[in-house]
Design a protein that fits this description.
Elements (H helix, E strand, L loop, with lengths): L5 E2 L10 E9 L3 E3 L2 E6 L2 E10 L5 E14 L6 E2 L2 E10 L12 E2 L2 E2 L1 H12 L21 H4 L14 H4 L5
């Protein structure tokens, strides 16, 4: 079932009761380090566990598997790392700031925003084409993974020693 928001009140849960929901949420691209990455699949299948707490609140758990598609942060080739998301939220009216979920408004769960934020938090720190990608050569920009061990550049001599090289010590 595709949805962006879900009516928690419609579940009619009593205190201590819970329900597991299988839903699908459409995702917008995610921006990391100034680069836009597509979240795959664009229609993400999510599992949401909803439990009613005493005091009229909710305990929520969100689980999904996603990938990000975009350029590798080191070599700029296509990358598509996959990762798991397991996020929890608690909404307890009058329970203080730490028990006030930004995704629950009355009885309405803003599922699209929660999935977006959970994906952003669970995404890898660096989007890489392969683990350990060595990136690009800082001098000639060749991809180091394909350049081989023989790739190197002659170091320019240190200009501070230039006058000493002019000395004739013979």
């Amino acid at each position: 079932m595709k949805t962006d928001a879900f009516d928690l009140g419609g579940l009619r849960l009593g205190s201590g009761e819970g329900r597991r929901l299988a839903l699908a949420v459409e995702q917008d691209p995610l921006e990391l380090a100034g680069t836009s990455y597509v979240v795959l699949p664009q229609l993400v299948d999510v599992t949401v566990d909803v439990s009613r707490t005493t005091g009229g609140g909710y305990a929520l758990r969100l689980r999904l598997t996603a990938s990000l598609r975009g350029p590798c942060m080191r070599c700029l080739l296509d990358a598509e790392p996959s990762f798991e998301v397991d996020a929890r939220e608690v909404e307890l009216p009058g329970g203080g700031e730490e028990l006030d979920s930004p995704y629950v408004h009355g009885e309405l769960l803003d599922l699209r925003s929660w999935v977006h934020d959970a994906v952003a938090l669970a995404a890898p720190d660096q989007v890489l084409c392969e683990p350990g990608c060595p990136g690009l050569c800082p001098l000639c920009a060749v991809r180091l993974a394909s350049a081989g061990p023989e790739h190197h550049h002659e170091r320019e001599p240190d200009r501070r020693w230039e006058k000493l090289r002019e000395l004739d010590l013979s």
